UniProtKB/TrEMBL annotation, chain A:
PANTHER family: SKP1 (PTHR11165). InterPro entries: SKP1 (IPR016897), SKP1-like (IPR001232), SKP1-like_dim_sf (IPR036296), SKP1/BTB/POZ_sf (IPR011333), Skp1_comp_dimer (IPR016072), Skp1_comp_POZ (IPR016073). Residues 8-67 form the SKP1 component POZ domain. Keywords: Ubl conjugation pathway. Part of a SCF (SKP1-cullin-F-box) protein ligase complex. This is SKP1-like protein. Pathway: Protein modification; protein ubiquitination. GO terms for biological process: jasmonic acid mediated signaling pathway; protein ubiquitination; ubiquitin-dependent protein catabolic process. Belongs to the SKP1 family. Residues 113-157 form the SKP1 component dimerisation domain.
TrEMBL record, chain B:
PANTHER family: BNACNNG10540D PROTEIN, F-BOX DOMAIN-CONTAINING PROTEIN. Pfam families: F-box, FBA_3. Gene3D superfamilies: 1.20.1280.50. The lineage of its organism: Eukaryota, Viridiplantae, Streptophyta, Embryophyta, Tracheophyta. Residues 4-50 form the F-box domain. This is F-box domain-containing protein.
Amino acid sequence: MSSSVEAITVLSSDGDEFKITVSAAKLSKPLNWMLEDVCFSDDCDEVPTIEVNSKTLVKVIEYCEKHAPRANSGASDSDAEELKKWDIEFMKMDVKDILFHILMAANYLHMEGLYDLACQTAADLMKGMTVSQIRKIFHIKNDFSSEEQEQLRRQHPGCSFD
Amino acid sequence: MATGCENPRLPPEIVTDILKRLRVKCLIRFQSVCKDWRNLLNSPSFIKEHHHHSIHNNCLLICHIFHRTDGFWPPCLLRCEKETVEVERLPVMDSLRPVTELVGSSNGLVCVKLGYEFDYHPRSHLLLNPATREVRQVPKSTNDHGIFCAVDSGFWYSHVVRDYKIVTIHRARNPNGDDLPCVDLVEVFSLRTGSWKEVEFGIIRFIDFNSESVTVNGAMFWFGRHFGDLRGVIVSFDLTTEVFTLISIPFSTSIYEFGVYENKVAMCLPYNLHEYELWVLEEGSCASGGKSWVWTQKYRTTEISPLFLQLPLLRNELVCYSAMGDSGFLFNTTATSTLKKFASSLSDSYILGNFFYVESLVSMCDTYIE
């Protein structure tokens, strides 16, 4: 196969096929390695699997395709500004149920930009949450005794622990 | 892995990367989530990571503002957003008896002075972390019995000796009420030992201190003048060796502003009626192996009107001044040496002391290593 390939096909962990352009795949080191494998190996029939579920992979690819032109060629300030606005809109969608999956995927795919964006989005969401809401989304059990909780309160008078 | 829409369990390193983006107020609250989180949020490695993230993303200014109608405000924060400057009150500062001087800010810890010099009542230093609300009274020096008055001071963390230090420069009081014009005592407080000690100051005895301290690379700097002549001079105090050095200034400093630019000591001076130039002090090496200092001109600008007198230089690209008390402005200087104007809610006020401030979880109990 020649290096003039414009897009490659990958499989999600659910077994669905997705197309990702070569320039978009360059945003992720692991994806880029897979791309090189596909482009340069003789065994072209093999479709690489990415350990990310379909719903998340759709979003990750959407992000890559949007950011690829800027990452590959550099961009003006107005483009950067536009991209920032796009990121905010992008993170508004289905954030509650998909955000942590995107975080895991960005971490696994070494995508720094998406990882930072998702971490910041999670942090921003947490600001407005109660401690019990935090426990719920992070699957955490409260392992403090009531005495220990009282001790925390005493250490930080004037702070709310709800 | 969990199916469908359920949130997956995040590995600890991702949890850390999210938490380090939160403000201290939230982190104190989230200590009660579980023991693992409490231990993480109190661990030196997390405190350090959180601090580093904040330095690059949430650098604020802590400042002392004199408002024309309200008088002094307790020290508060200036948050510089893209095109505006927001003032943020600090509850812990509001609850203190009048703070009369901001001494310095380092790693999220702030040193302030309480009380007034003219009271003849010794003023006291207080160390505090405004974010965690930890407060510690600094013990009084044994020399502190009304004979001396402080003319200048500074507070910073020394990476080399891993200690926070307060430096105070004193003059003896003249019984007639006027302060004698020379330095009579310099004391350094170490948080690690919890005590004050005197240091050698002969070289600065006849210097008149004219600025707040700025700290760059482990040394404190002041702008001063030799008594009896108008020559400006930079006084530096190495926080590790506790030795003073004088650095000469090769240009006229009849009107000047003194601050930090790109992590270097900087001075902004009028070049002529319409132009200002910015000079930075850079460290060179000399043949004898010791330090030498070189002044370099960074840029000249025509956009500052000489009508604006107060012009403290701030963070890398930020120049702030209040124009004759009429209104407050912040300017963002860029590499192209143009100045961007910022809107500000600081009208009718003068900014007196100002320091970079980064919210942190750093505690005075364990001496923090940056």
